[in-house]
Amino acid sequence: MNKRATLPGASELFRPTKGAPDPVAPQPAEPPPPKSEPKRAEAETPAGGATGRVKHDHKITVYFSEDELNALEDANLELRRTHGIRVDRGRIVRMAVARAIADLAANGADSHLVSELRQQ
C-alpha cells in the first residue's frame, strides 16, 4: 500500500517553448498620444483625497549609520507627536534634499551644503 501521492513531472507542468510561435499582438491603428507630465498640484492631490504623496519615477539607495537612522526616526516621531504631521522617512529625506539643493542654487558657495562638505 503506497501512501505517497503521485505528482506530475516537469514535462507535465511546463509547456515546451520550441516549435510553438509566440502569438503576435495586433498593432494599434495609430500610436497613442504622448503622455504629458502632470502638473505638480495635480500629482500631489489624487482623486481619492489629499495625501501629499507623489508617484516617483526614479529610485536611489542611501545608506545611513545607526545614529543617522535613529535621528531620522526621532525626527519622524517628533513631527507626529508635536506637530501632528504623519509622513514617511522617504518624504522627510526628499524634502531635506530639495531644501539643500534650493539653498545651493540660491547661495552658491555660501550655502549650508557647501560649508558642511568643506568641513568634512
TrEMBL record:
Region annotated Disordered, chain positions: 1-56
Domain of life (superkingdom): Bacteria
The annotated regions of Pro residues compositional bias extend over 23-35
Name assigned to this protein: Cobyrinic acid a,c-diamide synthase
